[in-house]
Write a structure and sequence with these properties.
Blueprint (H helix, E strand, L loop, with lengths): L1 E7 L2 H14 L4 E7 L7 H11 L4 E5 L3 E3 L4 H11 L3 E5 L1 E3 L1 E2 L17 E7 L9 E5 L6 E3 L2 E2 L3 E5 H6 L13 H9 L4 E5 L4 E3 L7 H13 L6 E2 L5 H21 L4 H9 L9 H18 L1
Helix pairs in contact: 7-9, 8-9
């Protein structure tokens, strides 16, 4: 039995995903939807309200621009959680390594920093590119432990969501909640990606200025646990990889209009990371200065 929680901005999309759920879920369920077309409430606040209202023990938070493809996927969720007692959060896309450098659930600049674990049909509403079935299962598993997951579709236990609520005080918009929730739940429970459930997500990520601001908030909050190395990468190479990724980040941030001072604060906010002693922090300030001089 599932409580499915949706923050809605488009009535037509909500109707379509509701019908898709009805046709495929295969277990008793309820849909708890919130009309947020005016954008006055953040997704964290509404997801917490949905958790409080849910009558079932398993929760599924999903975007409305989704079509469920797998038949009886609700039964699969019930089985996965019943067979994995320490599972706290389940998704269909995730990363095996979450970097110190600000990013989404994956590390786009240096894919050597951890694996991608994905099974979904990705649509491209904004760019108009053709759909792709993005399937990446590097260890040929049915369930892969990861560091963080994509929030387009994620399931958890109600008890977990009550113990680790979404941070509606920090995140008042529509970004960063999946990273923050992954880090929060991951303190006690396992995070995993399943390959047994397939869905289509009609929209690709839209990395706006607001996305960047919320991502920086999450990284500052959780700097003391980063990086999260579920893939058990060699610790000796992580510092070098992170510094290279940071140099790419510095250039992008400066070109997007962040000042030298603002980027310096981002560096300073990483000082609690277990792989960045102060001597590395000071080297990163020097890295920033070189990038700044190159592009100014």
């Amino acid at each position: 039995m599932l409580s499915i929680i949706i923050c809605s901005a488009n009535e037509n999309d909500l109707n379509l995903v509701s019908q898709s759920i009805k046709n495929t879920v295969g277990v008793p369920y309820e849909i708890i939807s919130f009309n947020n077309s005016d954008g006055k409430k953040g997704i964290c606040e509404l997801y917490n309200q949905g958790t409080a209202r849910a009558k079932y023990d398993l929760l599924c938070f999903m975007h409305e621009d989704i079509e469920m493809i797998t038949e009886k996927w609700g039964q699969k969720i019930e089985t996965i959680f019943s067979e994995n007692n320490n599972l706290g959060l389940l998704g269909i896309a995730g990363g095996g390594y979450k970097s110190v450098v600000p990013s989404s659930w994956y590390n786009a600049d240096l894919e050597i920093n951890g694996g991608f674990y994905i099974n979904l049909v990705q649509g491209f509403r904004y760019s108009g590119k053709p759909d792709i079935h993005d399937y990446r299962n590097p260890r040929n598993e049915t369930l892969s432990k990861v560091a963080s997951i994509d929030g387009c579709w994620m399931c958890t236990r109600k008890s977990v969501a009550q113990k680790y609520p979404f941070d509606e005080d920090l995140l008042r918009n529509f970004h960063g909640y999946d990273l923050d929730f992954s880090f929060s739940v991951g303190q006690q429970f396992e995070i995993a990606v399943t390959y047994e459930i397939l869905l289509k997500h009609f929209s690709e990520g839209n990395f706006t200025q607001q996305w960047m601001e919320d991502t920086l908030k999450v990284h500052k909050k959780w700097s003391w646990i980063l990086p999260i190395n579920s893939d058990q990468l060699d610790a000796k190479i992580l510092k070098g990889n992170e510094r290279r990724a940071f140099r790419i980040f510095f250039e992008r941030a400066l070109k997007q209009g962040y000042s030298f001072s603002e980027v310096s604060k981002i560096i300073w906010n990483t000082r609690h990371s277990r792989i960045f002693p102060l001597r590395i922090i000071f080297k990163m300030f020097f890295d920033l200065w070189k990038v700044f001089r190159k592009i100014r």
